[in-house]
């Protein structure tokens, strides 16, 4: 019974100290700052990407669709990278070892990669669709399978795995 009391006391005791709440509040404030800074950085980077392609294609109408496709793809990749950095920073702020998580994610990713060959195949196909310029955002497409129309319409967005 004394062992149970000792365990309960060790769990409750930190909650009675004001330092615990000060540390929690400062961590929460830092998380909000990280998220706001990431959001602002993404806004600037996305604007920069758009301006880069606008300058590259000044006066060229033929490349407008391809530019829109590449803009959305690059913005998505940058967004994933920035939010991954923010997430790992937040986890490390709470004392969670992100090195172990990243290392184990690599091993798990390798194992899942063998089981998810269709996903990898889809991503590779999406990569070639985008860079071979088979169709772009704004194109009207008709998708057939075994002679019957599966879907048709205007392409709104293109990713590596989905259109």
Class per helix and strand makeup: mainly alpha
| Alpha plus pi helix count | 5
Distance between the termini: 62 Å
Spatially, the strands of the biggest sheet line up as 1-2
Beta-strand content: 5-15%
Largest β sheet strand count, sense and barrel closure: 2 strands, antiparallel
Morphology: elongated
How many runs of DSSP E, i.e. beta strands? 2
**Integer average pLDDT:** 80
Radius of gyration: 24 Å
Task: State the low-pLDDT regions, or none.
Answer: none
Please trace the helix and strand order, writing H or E for each element. HHHHHEE
Work out the helicity level.
55-70%
Fold blueprint:
Blueprint (H helix, E strand, L loop, with lengths): L1 H11 L5 H39 L7 H30 L4 H18 L1 H15 L8 E6 L2 E7 L9
Antiparallel strand pairs: 1-2
Helix pairs in contact: 2-3
Describe this protein's structure.
The protein is mainly alpha-helical and 163 residues long. It has helices spanning 2-12, 18-56, 64-93, 98-115, 117-131; strands spanning 140-145, 148-154. A two-stranded antiparallel sheet has the order 1-2. It is elongated. The mean pLDDT is 80.
């Amino acid at each position: 019974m004394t062992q149970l009391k000792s365990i309960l006391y060790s769990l409750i005791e930190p909650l009675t100290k004001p330092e615990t709440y000060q540390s929690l509040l400062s961590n929460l404030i830092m998380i909000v700052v990280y998220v706001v800074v990431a959001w602002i950085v993404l806004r600037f980077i996305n604007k920069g990407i758009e301006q880069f392609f606008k300058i590259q294609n000044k006066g060229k109408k033929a490349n407008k669709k391809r530019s829109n496709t590449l803009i959305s793809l690059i913005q998505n990749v940058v967004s994933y990278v920035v939010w991954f950095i923010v997430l790992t920073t937040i986890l490390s702020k709470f004392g969670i070892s992100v090195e172990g998580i990243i290392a184990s994610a690599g091993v798990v990713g390798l194992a899942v990669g063998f089981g998810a060959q269709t996903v990898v195949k889809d991503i590779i196909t999406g990569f070639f669709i985008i860079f071979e310029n088979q169709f772009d955002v704004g194109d009207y497409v008709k998708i057939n399978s075994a002679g019957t129309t599966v879907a048709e319409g205007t392409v709104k967005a293109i990713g590596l795995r989905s259109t």
